[in-house]
Write a structure and sequence with these properties.
- The chain is an alpha+beta fold.
- 17% of the residues lie in helices and 33% in strands.
- Strands 7-6-5-4-3-2-1-8 form an 8-stranded antiparallel beta sheet.
- The longest helix has 11 residues.
Length: 155
């Protein structure tokens, strides 16, 4: 559906006007509410993809770093353009400000958080790992992921 969305300036501009995370936004309504106090999103670097496999041409990926609940990163499709974002981890979502790479204008977006284990108890002392609604966590960051992250941290 979004394959090659950043291949031309015109199409990319339209996508940013509609919302780069439109496919995720649809799923926000069905997200399981989760409070940040019930989950863990430790400081570190993360990679999430719409596919459980890296570098799938027609799938979106997010690479970001978390520090004290603040997020900096990039949204991209492999072999295409990317958009930088900053944001924070709220109680039930990742609240982002995504910068349109063509107009240098920031747009707000939110991605729902969900726990990997929907049966976790709020009384449990064991941290509940988090997922982004509509995305799979990937463990290995590529050189390109690190390059994009570094580029966005320089903004």
């Amino acid at each position: 559906m979004f394959e090659g969305i950043f291949n031309t300036k015109r199409i990319a501009k339209q996508v940013f006007q509609i919302g780069i995370f439109a496919s995720v936004g649809i799923s926000l309504f069905g997200a399981t509410p989760l409070r940040a106090s019930e989950a863990s999103f430790a400081d570190g670097t993360y990679l999430y993809g719409q596919s459980p496999q890296a570098e799938q041409i027609d799938r979106e990926y997010l690479v970001f770093q978390v520090r004290d609940g603040q997020v900096t990163g990039a949204a991209y499709y492999p072999l295409s353009e990317f958009a930088c974002f900053t944001g924070q981890i709220d109680e039930t979502q990742l609240s982002l400000s995504v910068v349109d790479p063509y107009e240098d204008v920031a747009h707000p977006y939110a991605i729902a958080l969900k726990s990997e284990s929907q049966t976790a108890s709020s009384n449990s002392q064991v941290p509940v790992p988090l997922q982004l609604e509509g995305f799979h966590r990937l463990e290995t960051l590529s050189e390109n992921d690190l390059r994009l992250l570094n580029a966005c941290q320089g903004n």
